Amino acid sequence: MTIRPAKREDAHHAARLLYDALHDVANQLTGEDSEEAVLAALEAYFAAEDGRLSYKQTLVKELDERPVGLVVAYGGDQAAELDRPILARLRSMKQNPDLQLDKEADLDEYYIDTLSVSPEYGGRGIGTSLIRAAEERASAYGYAKIAMAVVTDNTKAHSLYLKLGYQTDKNIMINGHVYYHMVKHLG
């Protein structure tokens, strides 16, 4: 099992992983309703050079010569710039130049936007290893803390993140749902 930077060629597998992790947020970010259309838009976002869901912000766990897990993470200070391509698409689709995305990341943190493991590979520590890889990347980039959001009813994930040293510092709203904003200070 290898963790490596994502490649554009991972887009097809990555789109499914993103969709499985993001749920209704995937519909919000793509402006699409059908699963097929959401997956196509996620694949395009992932293959693009820019944007928060680009392969450039992603590490993948490879097994059997394919991505079976991914973590999308970036500096909170980069979030506004990384949201530009998504906002441009959505503003055009919705014909609403004032449309905004929910603020998820604080400026001073490295933010785990999305963590996903293929269901058939669950329970093998892949998610934990991807979080650790994101933490290493955050430290290498000079961030003193890393954060993520977990929906408040996902008690299993919340418990795991607590065990990994994350603490809830506030609640945030994403697409009309309450999430715990969880932070870990890096050594």
Automatic annotation (TrEMBL):
<protein>
    <submittedName>
        <fullName>Ribosomal protein S18 acetylase RimI-like enzyme</fullName>
    </submittedName>
</protein>
<keyword id="KW-0012">Acyltransferase</keyword>
<dbReference type="Pfam" id="PF00583">
    <property type="entry name" value="Acetyltransf_1"/>
</dbReference>
<feature type="domain" description="N-acetyltransferase">
    <location>
        <begin position="1"/>
        <end position="187"/>
    </location>
</feature>
<dbReference type="InterPro" id="IPR050832">
    <property type="entry name" value="Bact_Acetyltransf"/>
</dbReference>
<keyword id="KW-0808">Transferase</keyword>
<dbReference type="InterPro" id="IPR000182">
    <property type="entry name" value="GNAT_dom"/>
</dbReference>
<dbReference type="InterPro" id="IPR016181">
    <property type="entry name" value="Acyl_CoA_acyltransferase"/>
</dbReference>
